[in-house]
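Per your request, structure below.
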């Protein structure tokens, strides 16, 4: 008696039925309201069941349909956070990934999968001008940042065989605009959050190289060992690009590891190589194909120049994982270059997606996002009730409603907060927020292959409609 397996025929039938649910979701996507249907309590009610003692395929399928129905519809007007739009060809390959169920931990457990991951990571490296880099796919930019900083620490403050490190005072440097995953990584690595030194930014939110140099020089006099300089290629708030060549020079002057957090921006180097000069100076570089290559979650990537440095940080082999044989290809092990041991075949969707559409299509799509951001910027500048709050470096557009310009700044903070809430409830356009110079701003971030020109135009009309609604409800 086999309790769980199904026949290949039953499998194919089920795939067809699930593909119809997915197809219906995609068919309705562009016209659907973005917010998930129902309140928190209603959704809990909908999905609350006793543990299913007996299987019920029809009920289970209805559950899938409900899941699609009660999910947020991330269509072409979704501009919150930095959230890629989930390209469907990749999603289809992801089904095969689960069916094949390869453990991409070592060549011997997944020969094709390891080969494909090496290949696709090489494509990405080449596409952004980092030809000599190797690397690995990760669960996201946060993991890639953690791993890059783990490598930095090992390179600069190696542990002895017992795992004990010299206790020289040490520091990691990043700008005040660095992503929260950097301070999280510094904390998790035991470096101590107080040893993350935040360097000032200029009026375009870019790290000031001279301020970094001065800070590092002062610390050197105090005997502090610089572990790493983290520079951001596309800050999460405004898409600012730290001046990489200059920062790289400062890091080199002080023999610090250079980690680039390119989780948001670095993949735009595929379309704009000139804007990302110096990327190849990184010792390690975090990227996020689930952001600006539109891959379904999750798919992050860490690139580095020296696989030996990755092994120094992550190899802790036990006898149960000893490789057999000496063939350089067949003895490849990812678990010695990664936090993860068992690893999902993330490369398959990315590899399929790139082959299906071609790199050219991704380049054009990234360019379209960049043009859309410029379009939104000009619309905002032509609308007297709106004000652009930061230069548009990539595709993050920060702005605020200023009405007739007679409100105080704290009043505007409240008005914009209310507008954001109201607009996201209206459900046509979804934005998030940023605080710049202590001012609450609306923020649209365009990394969305579905967005059209008219979707962009709706951002402005929706903000103005929400503003009218807010102002009628609560007179100033
Ligand atoms: C999104 C983002 C991260 C974190 O990446 P996840 O994939 O969400 O873990 C780190 N840094 C920047 C600049 C980001 O935009």
């Amino acid at each position: 008696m086999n309790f769980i397996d199904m026949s290949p025929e039953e499998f194919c039938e089920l795939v067809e039925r699930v593909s119809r649910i997915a197809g219906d979701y995609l068919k309705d996507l562009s016209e659907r309201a973005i917010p998930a249907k129902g309140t928190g309590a209603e959704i809990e009610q909908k999905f609350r069941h006793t543990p299913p003692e007996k299987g019920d395929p029809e009920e289970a399928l209805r559950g899938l349909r409900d899941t699609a129905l009660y999910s947020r519809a991330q269509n072409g007007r979704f501009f919150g956070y930095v959230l890629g739009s989930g390209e469907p060809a990749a999603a289809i390959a992801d089904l095969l990934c689960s069916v094949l169920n390869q453990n991409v931990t070592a060549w011997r457990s997944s020969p094709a999968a390891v080969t494909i991951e090496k290949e696709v990571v090489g494509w990405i490296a080449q596409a952004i001008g980092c030809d000599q880099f190797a690397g690995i796919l990760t669960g996201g930019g946060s993991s890639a940042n953690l791993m890059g900083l783990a490598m930095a620490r090992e390179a600069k403050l190696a542990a002895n065989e017992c795992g004990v490190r010299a206790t020289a005072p040490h520091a990691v440097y990043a700008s005040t605009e660095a992503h929260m995953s950097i301070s999280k990584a510094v904390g998790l690595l035991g470096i101590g959050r107080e040893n993350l030194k935040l360097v000032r930014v200029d009026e375009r939110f870019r790290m000031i190289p001279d301020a970094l140099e001065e800070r590092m020089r002062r610390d050197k006099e105090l005997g502090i060992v610089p572990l790493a300089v983290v520079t951001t290629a596309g800050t999460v708030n405004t898409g600012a690009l730290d001046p990489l060549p200059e920062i790289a020079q400062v890091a080199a002057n002080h023999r610090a590891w250079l980690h680039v957090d390119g989780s948001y921006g670095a993949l735009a180097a595929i379309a704009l190589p000139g804007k990302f000069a110096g990327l190849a100076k990184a010792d390690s570089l975090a990227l996020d194909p689930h952001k600006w290559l539109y891959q379904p979650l999750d798919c992050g990537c860490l690139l580095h120049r020296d696989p030996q440095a990755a092994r120094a940080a992550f190899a802790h082999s036990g006898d149960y994982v000893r490789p057999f044989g000496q063939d350089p290809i067949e003895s490849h092990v990812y678990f010695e270059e990664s936090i993860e041991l068992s690893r999902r075949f993330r490369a398959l969707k990315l590899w399929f997606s790139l082959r299906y559409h071609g790199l050219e299509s991704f380049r054009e799509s990234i360019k379209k996002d960049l043009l859309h951001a410029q379009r939104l910027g000009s619309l905002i500048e032509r609308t007297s009730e709106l004000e652009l709050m930061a230069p548009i470096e990539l595709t993050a557009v920060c702005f605020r409603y200023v009405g007739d310009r007679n409100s105080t700044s704290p009043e505007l903070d409240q008005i914009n907060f209310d507008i954001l809430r109201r607009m996201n409830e209206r459900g046509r356009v979804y934005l998030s927020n940023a605080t710049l110079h202590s001012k609450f701003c609306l923020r649209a971030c365009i990394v969305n292959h579905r967005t059209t020109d008219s979707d962009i135009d709706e951002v402005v009309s929706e903000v103005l409609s929400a503003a009218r609604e807010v102002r009628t409800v609560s007179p100033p």
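The longest strand covers residues 225-232.

Regards,
D.
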